[in-house]
Design a protein that fits this description.
It is built from 4 helices and 4 strands. The longest helix is centred in the last third of the chain and has 16 residues. A 4-stranded mixed β-sheet has the order 1-2-4-3. It is of the alpha/beta class. Strand 1, helix 1 and strand 2 form a beta-alpha-beta unit. The two termini are about 30 Å apart.
Length: about 130
């Protein structure tokens, strides 16, 4: 299925091809390539707005996850009943937030990949524990 990648922000550079290939690799490793996934890259203002609306937290953060399926047991994949149910949900990456924290300490795209990995697992309530 598809990976929809949107980058409506202009605060920091986002090279779509490397990010897409890394997230596609994560999807393959986690066994969720049959599911649609939305990935939205936003600036601090956009992330703060989403945090305020959905979490009541008036500040930017690194990532938000919005699972499509509810009532999925930890570590299990959703069990779609129809083609329309082959959707994991959406991940919102606070790319400006991540970029500011990576300056000189880590590779920006490695950090985005790590945050994408954790968020992808949250969409079907998987854990490394």
């Amino acid at each position: 299925m598809s990976l929809v990648l949107r980058v409506p922000q202009r605060a920091v550079p986002v090279r779509r091809a490397p990010l897409r290939s890394r997230v596609e690799l994560l999807r393959a490793v986690l066994g969720v390539r049959d599911f649609d996934l939305g990935l939205l890259c936003v600036d601090n203002e956009g992330m703060q707005r989403l945090n305020r609306a959905y979490r009541g937290d008036d500040r930017p953060t690194d990532v938000l996850s919005f699972p499509f399926h509810e009532n999925v047991k930890a570590g299990e994949l959703p069990r779609p009943r129809s083609r329309d149910d082959y959707n994991l949900g959406d991940i919102v990456l606070g790319v400006e937030y991540v970029f500011q924290r990576c300056r000189g300490d880590a590779d920006y795209y490695d950090a985005l990949t790590a945050w994408s990995d954790q968020s992808l697992k949250q969409l079907f309530r998987c854990s490394d524990r």
